[in-house]
Specification:
It is a single chain. The chain is of the alpha+beta class and 228 residues long. Helices cover 47% and strands 17% of the residues. The protein has nine helices and six strands, in the order H-H-E-E-E-E-H-E-E-H-H-H-H-H-H. The chain has a six-stranded antiparallel sheet with strand order 1-2-3-4-6-5. Helix 4 packs across helix 5 and helix 7 (173-183) runs antiparallel to helix 8 (187-201). The termini are far apart.
């Protein structure tokens, strides 16, 4: 059975998400689907469910920003990349739901395959337990520009090649952090985030093509942000 069809047939999953203010927005990928909040603010989450194997699924939380997307358009920051763009928002940070549980209690750490089972209602129950206990508080803690900018500025996975997976990740955390700070009137904090990113990118391997390209793009984005 295609994964999106499996989701649609899991009435308890869809109704549980609806009770929490989220609606299903199935993707074209038969192994992946997304839940969006009914009300989307300037910073809002999307919750993804992805087929892991034939028996299990996993989930990630992606925090999206309308302000960052607007800044990218206004200052032409896309260059040759469009990281995390979706409609009028950009996904600026992602984290696995299981990682949030493990980070709060290392004794709960176990193999991904042991948790969200497709064949049992207990898999959905565990998913909701983790979402309510760890996911929604995480979303609430980063729902304003200042804490989200601070988290991005201090993220330790950088430069990342992907958006989604395990611990908190971001495609361009220092750029996103600077934009959020600037739009919140925190100019000094924005410049500090850009400086941190510049120091990080100074350590990339120029012989690795994607790292070298993104280092150049970072410098150009930083120049355009500061110029304005």
């Amino acid at each position: 059975m295609e994964f999106t069809n499996w989701i649609k047939n899991k009435s308890s999953l869809i109704s549980g998400m609806r009770d929490r203010g989220y609606r299903l927005c199935a993707s074209d990928d038969e192994n992946h689907c997304i839940f969006y909040p009914e009300i989307r603010l300037k910073i809002f989450p999307k919750i993804t469910l992805s087929k892991w194997d034939e028996r299990t699924f996993r989930s990630a939380i992606i925090l999206c920003s309308r302000d960052v997307a607007e800044e990218f358009r206004e200052k032409d920051l896309w260059l040759d990349e469009m990281p995390g763009l979706e409609g009028n928002s950009i996904g600026v940070l992602s984290v696995e739901l299981l990682w949030l549980r493990w980070n709060n209690n290392s004794d709960l750490m176990q193999n991904y395959r042991d948790d969200y089972r497709k064949s049992f209602e207990s898999g959905c129950m565990r998913f909701f337990e983790d979402l309510d206990t760890f996911g929604i508080p995480f979303i609430s803690s980063l729902s304003r520009p200042d804490p989200l900018a601070n988290t991005l500025e201090n993220i330790d996975e950088y430069p990342a090649n992907i958006m989604q997976g395990g611990k908190p990740r971001s495609a361009d955390p220092f750029i996103y952090s600077a934009i959020l700070s600037m739009r919140n009137g925190e100019i000094a904090q924005a410049k500090e985030a850009l400086k941190k990113g510049e120091l990080k990118y100074a350590c990339v391997n120029p012989d690795i093509e994607w790292q070298h390209r993104r280092s150049l793009n970072y410098k150009e984005r930083m120049r355009r942000i500061l110029r304005a």
